[in-house]
Amino acid sequence: MDKSVVRSGADIATPSRTKEIIRRHGFTFRKSLGQNFLIDKNILDKIIAAADLGPTKGALEIGPGIGALTERLAQEAGQVAAVEIDDRLIPILRDVLAIYDNVTLLHADVLKADLRPLWNERFAECESVSVVANLPYYVTTPIVMKLLEDKLPVESIVVMVQKEVAERMAAAPGGKEYGALSIAVQYYCEPEYVCTVPPGSFIPAPNVESAVIRLKRRSKPPVEVASEERFFRIVHAAFAQRRKTLHNNLTAFFGKDRKAELAEVLSAAGIAPERRGETLSLAEFARLEGALAEAGLVK
Ligand code: SAM
Description:
The chain is an alpha/beta fold. It contains 13 helices and nine strands.
């Protein structure tokens, strides 16, 4: 298929074409499913450039909507799989994407779906696979955490999220944005803030600013931990109450009777007990995990 021919005049991501498709299919938006459809071609160009696709690559899209991004992925990638929860969108997607033979639609809740079989069934011939999506904002964090923790073989995750969430993902220690999400994302990936996106780039316009972020999967984590599960448990405990010191948060987690012991562990790890979780680097959290395990405080 001559993709340049398909490109011309076919763009779904324009206000007029989006309104036309919605009207023709009698579609009504469900706010509860985070349905804000992209109508800004320039932003789509930035997403596509950040995803670095090509005919030998695969793209997994979460929440295709009426296909604004899916269409561009079909033109730029070798294989595309798109997972959509709303059954009303499946016939619309089949209609608007009918000319593309490299798109697989899955009607499922991405949080419940087993995505692994896609790698054998759809992406077997692909050199690498990236997740590229304009995510539903009400479940951004669970979706990103699932992609990271399931250890799916993805090269990168290029996603539209709320601006504030993108800032948290990319935050460095010390600021108010830095927290458990920053540590989880940065443990698995190198984040790169791509661009800010105004509400007017969507129909309907969301109440918040958005941002595109690229998470490049690391070949191995930047710190060594004995147990990832334990490491993240400690991270969550450290941020349980942000205005409390690390020592107090850990005491609340392990129990008051361990307070003195915890002070010794912190000093063994070279971390001042009056510091707050938000000031600790990944390396310091890894050291803390090691010291707590060595002291027999966590199993
Ligand atoms: N990709 C389209 C675009 O950019 O115009 C639509 C993006 S819209 C922000 C989010 C989409 O995710 C909607 O189509 C919504 O129905 C879908 N969605 C919401 N929750 C989902 C879930 N748990 N699993 C799969 N899709 C979901």
